[in-house]
Every structure is written in structure tokens, then in C-alpha cells.
Amino acid sequence: MEYGYYPGCSLTGSAKKLDQGVRQLCKKLGHGLTEIPDWNCCGALEYGDRNELVSISGENLEKARGMCKEIIVPCPACYKNLKDADHDRSFNILSPLELLSVENLSQIEQKRDLKGQVFFPYYGCLLMRPEGSSIKNKNIMEEAISAFGGDINGENMKDRCCGGNQLFLNKWATEKLSTLILGKSKGAVVVFCPFCHMAMKTFAVGRKVIYLTDLLLYVMGENNSL
Amino acid sequence: MNTKDHEIVFKYTGYRREDFSVCLGCKICASVCTVNDLSLNVNPQELLMKLFVGEKIEGDHPLVRYCTSCYRCTTACPWQIRIPEVVRAVKESLGVESRFEKAFKKSLSIWGRVYEPFVVAMTALDLLKGGYIKYMPKWMGYAGFHLPHKVKRLKPMNASKGSNPSEKGRS
Amino acid sequence: MNILIIGGGISGISAAKVALGEKQDVTILESTPEPGGLMARIANCRVGFKTFFDEIRDNKRLTVINDAKIAKVDKKDRTFAVTLNDGQTLTADRVIIATGLTPYDPVEYKGKRVLTSLEYDAVIDQRQGELPADFNKIGFFLCVGSRSKDYPLCSSVCCSYTLREVKWTLQRAKPEVVVFYNDLRFFGQEFYMEKAFRDTGVRFVRANSRYFEEDEEGVTVRYYTGGQLKEERFNYAVLAIGLRPNPQLAELSRMFGFSLNKYGFINEKAPLQTDVEGVFVSGGALEPMNIKDSILTGFGAGLLSVKGPEILAKAEVQDERLYREDEPEFVLSDGDPTICLFYLGTEDPGNGIFYEFVSSKFIEAARDLKKSGKAVYVLTRNMVTPSYGEITYEEARREGVVFVHLEEDETVAFDGNQVRIAREGRELTFNVDKVIRFDDYAKLFKDREYLSLYRSEPQIRWSPTKWGRTKYHIGFIRHPREKRWEEREILGALGEILLDKEEERILPEVNEERCSGCGSCKNACPHSAIEILIREKQLAIFGPFSSSAVPIAHVKEDTCVGCGLCASTCPSDAIAFAEKPPAS
Description:
CATH topology of the largest domain in chain C: FAD/NAD(P)-binding domain
Mean pLDDT of chain C: 89
Number of domains of chain B: 2
CATH architecture of the largest domain in chain C: 3-Layer(bba) Sandwich
Shape of chain C: globular
Helix content of chain C: 10-25%
Low-confidence stretches of chain B: 158-171
Mean pLDDT of chain B: 84
Largest sheet of chain C: 5 strands, parallel
Helix content of chain B: 40-55%
CATH superfamily of the largest domain in chain C: FAD/NAD(P)-binding domain
Number of helices of chain C: 13
Strand order of the largest sheet of chain C: 3-2-1-7-18
Radius of gyration of chain B: 18 Å
CATH class of the largest domain in chain C: Alpha Beta
Largest sheet of chain B: none
Radius of gyration of chain C: 26 Å
Shape of chain B: globular
Number of helices of chain B: 12
Structural class of chain C: alpha/beta
Distance between the termini of chain B: 9 Å
Oligomer: heterotrimer
Order of helices and strands of chain B: HHHHHHHHHHHH
Strand content of chain B: under 5%
Largest interface: A-B, 50 and 61 residues
């Protein structure tokens, strides 16, 4: 299937890996992605004026109008903002996670498995909340990891906040929140959010922090290491 | 802040006064608030009450400073009140944004996107002073050079918002 | 006449009773394997339901179809042809919708130690065996799944039910109990129960929580009170889940053609009637209500189905057995205050019964004042606006009436035009022109102490309205509450009167030889059915006749309901039932 694609600012810079992963994964699953031309920033979490935020995010939808109805948005903050901006629900805004299901995962040509490895699927906030701009299947990461034999833990912590947006404002806060989450979970941290990735990466000691896309590509034999 | 300033908050959030006042006073928001994981003892319901009765809110209120926009309060709130958006509106109307947030908006007004090297450059001094240098080894994976993309079609953005907030919320 | 009742819960069975009593053919459709509904899911009510149902179970005019599902409804002239999924066809002249309420399922919070109130019910059910070994500390959390954006009504019964669960818990063990609440929506004597539990150490906290972190040993709960975030461990957290309309109502509404309101309950065109002729409604299909009111509306709908809606207008409305009193008039104020403050709180549990009435009066007055441009504050210790009352409360909040919740340890001092709220570390002062206090209002109810005897459970043979032998309380006097209930109560009482006709009443008799006239029976009688008369009594059999005036108890036949409280309190066995069971 063909989708519009909105990468967002982080994915052109610090979260380039997520961008590459999503593109590669979509290709594997047989989906085509067309980047929305001349897209602009969604406004992230930095605007106090909701009208302004919505008009900034909404501009992207204007650019996509007539081009596509379904837009893939990997970054959770962009995902939330674009969903909020789409008042009349004229678009179907999807996280790449919503392209995954137990069925299509089972069709993946599996080159490696995750047996004996422990993972902590960590969603963070904006994929899970608030209601109305959250993903439907809130267990998809667990389902994906289990499908390939990986062990899951940290269930209670999966939607707690890492404090990622405080990292450059009050880093002690991010440290405390991330450490709390890391302390109550084990194994490699599997994330989908660029902010979570950065916070976890910064404060995890001796633990891998990976995007789910990279994990799936590893299983498919596209990546050689985690 | 006086009641008139609070109207700015209502305007910013797109909330009407009555959407706030539907708050039941149950304090469920406080029970789940992430800021309380930081032992800062906050109660978002009290902030709403302040807005509603026109009481002054200080810029260094821990909720204003530390809200992580996690939306746990919204999900648990019986009335789904989007407190993080209220907090951001308060923050903006008080003009207490950090240099990081200003740099972010500045980048948006120049290119229409966030150009990370620019934000880093603008906040380099803070990063140095704040002791972020020790994380650099872990952050190597995030680095990578690319040129900024200038968005051609852009909604006219009020650049003064980030740089000169003192003009409003202070009348 | 064929009467079809959809729903075999307490309300449907109540309706069936009245209709069967009037010699009609009744069919009950129950969607589960057996009648019982929500009431029978409560361990301590199961037996009660069974006794109630057993009275009609074998009636030849009654058919109960379990596991029934309606496939199709055709309306021909004035009859309904109802086809069930198994192909069976029924014809009905009148239909009563009694589908009851559906408990909310809080999947987002449930766990092994975070239980819904119904799950917890099974834990403390004596018939299920021993209590769990770690039964030391239990937390109750009110208003889960009601009074919220997706369901703005108050479920009316969860507070009362929680209070019962506390009672049953304490009957079996002595764990530490904490109740976290927004408001305590009790009715009548429940306020005395609350007081009694407080005195035995049950803690009530006016703050709610949704922070439940569960592990193998227990649940960590966070809540915010007294300006502090608190963290506390519990063995079990019990969620008082809200009650919502039965989802099957939507389909029934399509098939029968009656309309639903935006909350999913039936639009009540006239008391206990849907907007389709011949289709009546009772119980939880109307709004969230307790068992007593489900019986009341069941009786009423049963009556309507037999006699038709005309009955309200007919002479029977004037039935002298229906008893009501005028409610006291609430005069708000003199002068022209610009800042008004209402204080909705009382220390006297006996005044608790007026909470519902005063809450709605205060909200009404506060809204009027707000609309005329005044600043209005309402300080609340408790706000009792059950069911649709919550919508009015919500509107008042949206209109800008400021409600300030007082926590348990906060004190209020009234000093002229100043009202000071204080607790440790905080003081809040309001300068106001006018203060309206609960207790000033409650004064209007002086000499009506009997109101505090109102109990939300059905008393005396399942009677929702019966007070004395010939007195059936309706309206304000039955229970001070919203107006819409009054006509329902008239219908319910009339239904109850019909049922009473057949009952044989057994009156206690006084053995005048034994009676010493002490008056203990008189004091015990809840219905003032005993008077002490002065009788001439012959003192000696032999010798000159001499007689003297002595006091002797006398049972007033028209008032006595035959409850037997007098017999059980008499110290000399002088008052007893004529037909005593041989065993006693």
C-alpha cells in the first residue's frame, strides 16, 4: 500500500536511525512511502498557544491534501500534533506501529530469533496518551518481540514518563525519571520515540537502547547486530 | 497574574473557562502526576483552581517548571482535562521559557524546521555549564552532518513569541 | 392481557408481581441463564432476591424464558409480535422494559489486587470460604467510571454499596479500612452508619486516586491530601465501579421504536412510560437507582401496564392512603448581595438525609445568582447530586459557580462577612456579602425527625413506600429528593396498595391480664401503632367489688403493620401474635 510520509525534524537529524529503519521496514512489508513535499516542523511540545500549534501542524496536512489520505508519522510528538490538527479526521494518521500486527509479523521472513534475550518494550507517553491521539493496539511491541521468541519484562513501566523533554531544561529530572524506569525493568530497552531513545541512552548503564525498527530488521537479517 | 492574564491562558489553550471549571476537585491528577515522581509535591487541581479564581501563579511553580507533558493526568482525569497544555499556556503567558525553548522556536522561524546544530550552538554555553559534556560519548550516535532545509511555504509565525515574551501576560 | 417484561432483575420481578396479582398473563424474558440481574450478583442480596422471586415462581400465569434474545418485533394494531432467536413467537399487549444497569469494566486499572466492587463482593462472601491470608488493609475508591466525560451521570448507588461492603468486611475481620471519596452520596440512615464506622476507626479521605502500582504483596496507592502527596500500601484496592445503561437498550429501542437520551437511558415521556404507546419502563433502564427504587418503579410500571396511564388522572390518585406533606419553602435572601457563599456541610449525621435535597436547592439558587452576575462560591463537605442531579451540578460548574472542596481536616470559620478555611499550613479567606449555610436550611425540617428513619434498603416485606398500615409515603416525605420522583412514587405506591390487598395481616394481641402498661412496646413501635389506654380493671374476685383505673397497651388496628417488634420487646410476654409458630 502507498502512504504519505511525515518524518519530522528529529528524524532528519538525531533520530536518523529511526527514519532509515522505518523506510526499510515499510519496504520489507511492501508499503511505499512518499514524503510530504516541503513539510515543516509540527511545533513539538513548545507552543503554549494551541491555535498556533494547530496551525503550524495543520500546514503539513494542507501540503498533503490531494496527495494522500494516509500518512505515516514515526515521531510520537509529531503523531500527536498532526492528529490533534486533523479536526475533521480527513486523514488517517498512523504510527508505523499501527502497520504491524500479529498476522503480518508472522509472514515476515525470519532469519534470526530472539530466544533467550530479555527486552523491555518501552512506549513512553505520547504513543499511549491522550486518548484520541494514541495508538490502538497498546501491546504491539510485546506482541512483536514475543513473536520472535524474546522475553518481555517491565510491564508496569512501559508507559511511564522518561522526562525526555526536560533533558535540556532540568536534566536531574530526566535522570531521576529515566533511572526509575530503568531500575524497574531488565534487558535491552526497545523504544519508538526519539526523546525516549535519547533519555534512555543517556542514563542507561550497560544496557542496549534500540528502536523497534532495528530489532525487527535484525530478525529479518537486514541488520547484523543490535 | 490577575484574572485578565488568565484569559490569555484560556485563549491559548483553546479551552473556555467553563472547560476548566468542570473539574471535580478529585485530585486524581495529583495522584498520577509524573512531577510527583520527582518528590516535588504538586497538585495540578490547585493550579486549575488558581486560574479559575484568579489567584497569582508564580513562574517557578514546580508544575510550570517540571511538567513533562506526559498526559498521565489527562488520561486519569474523569473529564480528560489536558493539563499539560494548560501548563504550557501558563508558561508562555508568564514568559518563563528557557533558552533552549527559545532557540527551538527561533530555528522554526528561520527555517520552518528544527535544525539541531543551530539549537546546540545557541545553547552551547548552557550545555557546557550544565555538565552535559560527559554524555557526549553516548551521544555520538546522534551526530551527523546535514544542511538545514528551508521550508518554502510557511505559515507566518510570530517570531517575537519566543524572543520577546514579556510583551504579553504582563499587562 | 399478555404482559411482556424484558429483564428478570428485581425491577422486572416487581412489575410481574403487580401484574400477576391483577390476574394477567406475564412473560419474563431474561437474557442470562436465570433471573436475578445485578442484585443477585451481590452475595448478601442473593437470598433476598430468591425469596422475593419464589413468591411468584410457581404462578401458573407466569412464564419465564431464560437465555432469551429478541430477533424481531412487529407491531400490529395495539399488540406486539415478538420473535425470539430460537424462532418462538410471543404476542404482548403491553411491554415493560426492565433491562437494568450494566457495571463499568475498568480494564485499565484491574489486577489481582485491584478489584472491582463486584469482584471484592465474592472475596468477602462467607459462602465462598476463608478470607485471604493477607487481609489487613483495604482501600475503597469511589466514582470509577461515572461522573466523567464519557458518562457524566452519577451512578447513585456505589457510595451506598461501598458502605455495605465496609460493613460486611468488618463483620468478618478487622482490617484497616480507608475510603477515598469525592462525595459521600448516602441516603437517610446511611449517614449514621458512616458515623458509626468513623467511630470504629474507618478512615474517610476526601481525595481520589488512580495511582495503583501492584506487585505480589500488595498495591501502592498515591493520593494528595492536606497539601501533601501521600503514598500508602494496601493489600487490596476496591474500585466502586459505576453503573451504566444496558447496552442492549440500543437494539431494543430500534425494535420497539422508543427513543433513548444521549446517555443511553430511556426517554421518559411521562412517568414510567416510553414514547411508544403500550411500552413502559422501570428500574435501571430509566436511570441509575438502588434496589428500593427499582422495586418502586417496578410496582409502578406493573400497575401502568394493567390499568393504563389514565390511572394517574383517575380518582385513585386521591387515594387517602397516599400520604404527603408540603415541603418547607426555601427563601434565599434579603438585600442584594454581590458575593454569595454557600456552605454545604453539616456535623450532624441526622441532617445527612437532607444533603440531596439541600444540594439541589443550593445549586439551583447558586446558578440563579450566577446568572444575575454575582460571584458565587459553594464550600462543600459533601455534594449529593445522584443520577441526573450530577448533570445539573456539572452545568453549575461550567457556568462559573466556584465549588471549593473541603477536606476532612479543614475547618471553616464564619466571622461576619469573612469566611476562613484553615488547615495546617494553609488559610484561605473569602470576603462575602451573604452566607447561606446548610444548617440554617436544615432548621426548616425541625419536627420532621421521622425523615431520618429513611433507609435505602427495602423494609417491611419489600415495601418501598409503605410506612404505616394505611400510610404510603410519597414525594418529599418519603425521601427529600428531585421532583421527577414524585409521580413515579404515586404509581409505585398504588401498585404496592394493590399487592397489599391480598395479604392477610396478623396483628399482635394484648393479654390484658399480663400487661403491666409499662409502655416498652409503645416505644419500640416504629409506626406509632400502640397506645396506652386506661382501663377499669376489677381488682378482686371475692369480696366487695372494687375497681381501679390501670394502664394497658392497645394495638391500633389501622396503623399496625404486623412487624412484631412490640412482641419481641415486651418484658412480660403480654403482647404476642395469636398464631404463634409452634417452635417459639
